[in-house]
Amino acid sequence: RKEVEQDPGPFNVPEGATVAFNCTYSNSASQSFFWYRQDCRKEPKLLMSVYSSGNEDGRFTAQLNRASQYISLLIRDSKLSDSATYLCVVNLNNWLAEGSTLGRLYFGRGTQLTVWP
Amino acid sequence: DGGITQSPKYLFRKEGQNVTLSCEQNLNHDAMYWYRQDPGQGLRLIYYSQIVNDFQKGDIAEGYSVSREKKESFPLTVTSAQKNPTAFYLCASSSGLGYEQYFGPGTRLTVT
Hints:
The complex is a heterodimer of chains A (117) and B (112).
Chain A: E1 4-6, E2 11-14, E3 19-25, E4 33-38, E5 44-49, E6 55-57, E7 60-65, E8 70-75, E9 84-91, E10 94-96, E11 99-101, E12 105-107, E13 111-116
Parallel strand pairs in A: 2-13
Antiparallel strand pairs in A: 1-3, 3-8, 4-5, 4-9, 6-7, 7-8, 9-12, 9-13, 10-11
Chain B: E1 4-7, E2 10-13, E3 19-25, E4 31-37, E5 43-51, E6 54-57, E7 64-66, E8 76-78, E9 87-94, E10 102-103, E11 107-111
């Protein structure tokens, strides 16, 4: 099983629509969760971190479900400029005798979104 | 103006040649990373470094080498042993392993 799995899409939605992406992760002890956005032929950029209680940034809402090991990203009132690939990112902890430390990040393959006028 | 720079943006090489990609950051980050991205594919980790003078192999380290002599710099050498070197190479940095990463603009390497 891959560390992070996403539906690759593509998702094609009209302007103004609400769209949601889900992502599942394999390590129940993961502690860091992020959503990145990557435009065509550009570098990924941090969209938002995902906190246990869920968090919102304008039209974007991220949620974490630890019991089911998935995170979600909801985009409301889609804009043409939201067209991009959205990457789900999760860390894998390093287990030590005295506990665990934050381990490296794993990137999902991304979900492609196209918003049409 | 803080950030990560990579140079060059485009690089062309003949097969059999080693090539070094530059990555510099002025974010005072301890950790730095190199990823490779192929068309329509996700990011694959090549090497990463948590502190100066230390680095670890990622998932696809074969045919690549790195050094971390300065905190700000993490150059990647693509050697002739790398069988399919043509790709988009991305460098990133973070304050520590497991924290959010910030990426440079990438280098597109074409080997013919």
